[in-house]
Specification:
The complex is a heterodimer of chains A (109) and B (112).
Chain A (H helix, E strand, L loop, with lengths): L2 E3 L3 E5 L4 E8 L6 E6 L6 E6 L3 E5 L2 E6 L4 E6 L8 E8 L5 E3 L3 E6 L1
Parallel strand pairs in A: 2-11
Antiparallel strand pairs in A: 1-3, 3-8, 4-5, 4-9, 6-7, 7-8, 9-10, 9-11
Chain B lengths: L3 E4 L2 E4 L5 E7 L5 E7 L6 E6 L6 E2 L6 E3 L9 E3 L8 E8 L7 E2 L3 E5 L1
Parallel strand pairs in B: 2-11
Antiparallel strand pairs in B: 1-3, 3-8, 4-5, 4-9, 5-6, 7-8, 9-10, 9-11
Classes of the chains: A mainly beta (109), B mainly beta (112).
Chain lengths: 109, 112
């Protein structure tokens, strides 16, 4: 079966750095997405990786290793507004998105 | 620009009733999707449409139907609601079936 694993919850301090991991086993691979979802709101797109390596976008970076079935989202200079759930999703061989359950990130002052 | 709108925002429904969740886009994207989101689970695809006039089944299609008469509208119908269909429903779109997906604000549905 297809599976996306990410930690259920993480806690970090304002101003610090946090890394949210995602491992996947899917039927084929056509890219990996990270979305941010604030409580009670819709998911919003953060990043996309299809090749191995690091993609940097401001305070957020996303890394992919296809051989290891592994990705991480790195958030720097954490702000209180970064408190949200972070969703990892992999596009499989049929171009369907397979979603992880999300990681709830709690930022403490 | 509204992007994707969904209606209603929330609804409480008696079991056995028929319900249609509306989704409208002003982005003219070809592909549209319906997901449900339940606590502790990832988003699960119910139905999708890669272009107007075509639809396909996702991971959890049973009890749901969709239509895509034009590019902008993609309604989701529950023919006879059951309590297990209590969930938050998100409509999404993408330029085509291979592009990034963008989400509407969601509909919170409770079936009693």
């Amino acid at each position: 079966g297809q599976n996306i694993d990410q930690p259920t919850e993480m806690t970090a301090t304002e101003g610090a750095i946090v890394q949210i991991n995602c491992t996947y086993q899917t039927s084929g691979f056509n890219g990996l997405f990270w979305y941010q979802q604030h409580a009670g709101e819709a998911p919003t797109f953060l990043s996309y990786n299809v090749l191995d390596g690091l993609e940097e976008k401001g305070r957020f970076s996303s890394f992919l290793s296809r051989s290891k079935g592994y990705s991480y989202l790195l958030l720097k200079e954490l702000q209180m507004k970064d408190s949200a759930s972070y969703l990892c999703a992999v596009r499989d061989q049929d171009y369907q998105l397979i979603w992880g359950a999300g990681t709830k990130l709690i930022i403490k002052p | 620009i509204a992007g994707i709108t969904q209606a209603p925002t929330s609804q409480i429904l008696a079991a056995g009733r028929r319900m249609t969740l509306r989704c409208t886009q002003d982005m003219r994207h070809n592909a549209m999707y319906w997901y449900r989101q339940d606590l502790g689970l990832g988003l699960r695809l119910i139905h999708y449409s890669n272009t107007a006039g075509t639809t396909g089944k996702g991971e959890v299609p049973d009890g749901y139907s969709v239509s895509r008469a034009n590019t902008d509208d993609f309604p989701l119908t529950l023919a006879s609601a059951v309590p297990s269909q209590t969930s938050v429903y998100f409509c999404a779109n993408s330029v085509d079936g291979t592009d990034t997906q963008y989400f509407g604000p969601g509909t919170r549905l409770t079936v009693l």
